[in-house]
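Problem 12. The chain below contains 191 residues. Write out its predicted structure in C-alpha cell notation.
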Amino acid sequence: MNKDLNNEKELLGYIRSGDSDSFKLLYKKMFPVVLNYIKQNGGSEEQARDIFQDAMVVFYRKLQDDTFELTCKIQTFLYSVSRNLWLNELKSRIVIAPQEEIKDSSEEDIEVEDNDVRGRVAILNASLQNLGEPCATILKYYYVENLSMQEISKRMSYTNAENAKNQKYKCLVRLKKLFFKNASDLISLEN
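Solution.
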C-alpha cells in the first residue's frame, strides 16, 4: 500500500495501528531534520538516533491515548519532542558554577578538548560572566538554588511564573549562543 506523508489523518491511523511502514516513512522524512538540529547543538549521530527513537515512542504512546488530540503537523510534534528531549539532555550535563567561581574565571584558564570537562566548565563560566543581569541571577536561582519559577518571579518582581519561565528560556538561549561563540573563538585562536 502506498502511504503519503502529506495525508496526516490517514498516516495517524496507520501509526495508531502500529504499521511499521508508516514509522519508516516518518523516520526517513524526519530523522535528517532532528540529526541536523542535534549535530548543530553539540550532539552526535548516535545521540540523535536515541533522541529521535525516544520521540517516536512518546508520539506512539500519545496516539494510544484516546483523549490525545494532535493540534499540529506530525513533523512539528516530532521535532518539538526531539528538541525538548535534547535540551533536557544538555541541561542534565551542564554544571553551573556558583557566582563566586564565575568571577574568578579567566580566559587563560580555558582549554578546549572534546573530553575535557574542566575546559567546558571554564567556557561556561566565561559565558556566564558575560551573560549579565537579570539572566545570571535567574539561572543561579533556578539551577543552583533550585527555586521554583513562582519563587523566582517573586524575587525578580515578574508579574507571574510564566513570565519568569519565558525570561529563563531567553537567558538559556543567550547563554547557549555565548557558550558556542566562546568555544569557537577559542578554537580559532588555537588554530
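Discussion. The radius of gyration is 20 Å. Students who got a different answer should revisit the alignment rule from Section 12.3.
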